[in-house]
Amino acid sequence: MRLETKFFEEGLRILHDESVDDVVSEYMDSAQDESVMLFNIGDMVQKVKNWKLKMPRVKPFYAVKCNPNPTVLKVLAALGTGFDCASKAEMRNIVDLGVNPSRIIYAHTVKPKSHIKEAAALGINTMTFDNESELYKVKSVFPTARLVLRIRCDAKDSQCNLGMKFGANPEEIEPLLATVKALGLNFVGVSFHVGSGCREPHIYYEAIQRARDVFDLANSLGYSPYLLDVGGGFPGNLGTSIDEYAKYINRALQEFFPDDDVHVIAEPGRYIVASAFSLLTSVTAKREVEKKDQRKKMMYYLNDGVYGSFNGILFDHQTPKPIVIGNALDEKKKNIPLFESQIWGPTCDSVDEVIKTEMLPELNVGEWLLWRDMGAYTLPSMTTFNGFPGPNIHLVVPYHTLLLEDILNDKGQAALDKCSPLEPKGNQCDYPKIPSTRNLFEKDQDCHLMDQVKIAANITTLRVLEI
Ligand SMILES: Cc1ncc(COP(=O)(O)O)c(C=O)c1O
């Protein structure tokens, strides 16, 4: 099926030579009470391009849970990534976008029976497991499912440890595979997740080495696994890099899985979307409180808080940092004094604290603060507690991102679907020959194609693109 993403109709701001920072003032509307989330589509496209450059063998399957904003999903679908879904609603959502089910992995080791049935009905065949009870469920409702064993290998230093809840320990692996065999189920591969926001790139090397041992064990039981899933955990904030992660992963793949017959995927969430979203909040009210040393301390109340866009403070161990913009920034440049400031969200609850203490110039009601790296694990876990609605989302896109062309014909798209890494060896075809986006961009820039491209209002469709 041909994919067409119709997101431009929602209205978007095209960036020519400007950066997102240059245009934030256009969104600081004093007549508006809600916060504003700016989604820079170009940032996400660059992330996918960079991934393919750094880890060409590892196909990204975006972790939908991280940010299921419809434009995020549509653009990624058009870019040809796969998807990691954790529930029947997520699977249905992605299939409804027109994504071929062969580009979806059901990557949750604990699955309600009805969700397994839904996967079967949708044609999503590949799913993870890490415990025996799961195998009996699969046996009863989807006995031909392609099973991927999630093993445990934790980074010591990560933002969110997942190993305490998921992943088979070394001593559990052999009995689990024996049960798979006894039940006559279909074992196809190994996955792991070292922890979200992993700060130890070298752990991927160790995890891939352990996965090799499981492949060998499965071979000895008569299975021929063909899928390795290196999970998520990659950093995505501005100024971070996946270079070190790629170094360890590429090296481990070369050493332990030199044969291309083993397909390699990953489930990045944070990496893809974190830096693409910036939040603008305004000051709804302020209070001045005295400190013991007579220096005043400020309390500010914003139009967004931990029940809204800042819920990652509670759920994702996030520590957002405010950036002063507008009038207050101009004042700051003049070396005016900074005051100890505490920042609260808008609700009636005192758990709604965004910043305990930060040195800031004095802000006035109606002034705005900018918060970067707000794209990961923010929007999906938001509530409307107390009736506060959350941010208005606006799209911005650098001009060169608009230059994406329809370079895959229907035949190419069909081939791309058939080439999903989740398909076993026999079902694979050669990847279609597709010009790289890099060349496309260079060509566009050199030839000043600007005049030839129908921009802004006229462009409503971004066609399928493999980059
Ligand atoms: C199974 C699974 N895969 C992928 C991810 C995405 O991880 P990250 O955002 O760290 O890349 C998660 C996050 O919780 C997960 O549970």
TrEMBL record:
Domain Orn/DAP/Arg decarboxylase 2 N-terminal intervals: 42-274
InterPro entries on file: Ala_racemase/Decarboxylase_C (IPR009006), De-COase2_CS (IPR022657), De-COase2_N (IPR022644), De-COase2_pyr-phos_BS (IPR022653), Orn/DAP/Arg_de-COase (IPR000183), Orn_de-COase (IPR002433), PLP-binding_barrel (IPR029066)
Protein origin, superkingdom: Eukaryota
GO molecular function: ornithine decarboxylase activity
PROSITE patterns: ODR_DC_2_1, ODR_DC_2_2
Extent of the signal sequence: none
Keyword Lyase: yes
One cellular-component annotation, GO: cytoplasm
Record's keyword terms, sorted: Lyase, Polyamine biosynthesis, Pyridoxal phosphate
CDD domains: PLPDE_III_ODC
Any one GO BP annotation for this protein: putrescine biosynthetic process from arginine, via ornithine
Family stated for the protein in its record: Belongs to the Orn/Lys/Arg decarboxylase class-II family.
Function: Catalyzes the first and rate-limiting step of polyamine biosynthesis that converts ornithine into putrescine, which is the precursor for the polyamines, spermidine and spermine. Polyamines are essential for cell proliferation and are implicated in cellular processes, ranging from DNA replication to apoptosis.
Protein name per its UniProtKB record: ornithine decarboxylase
Organism: Armadillidium nasatum
Phylogenetic lineage: Eukaryota, Metazoa, Ecdysozoa, Arthropoda, Crustacea
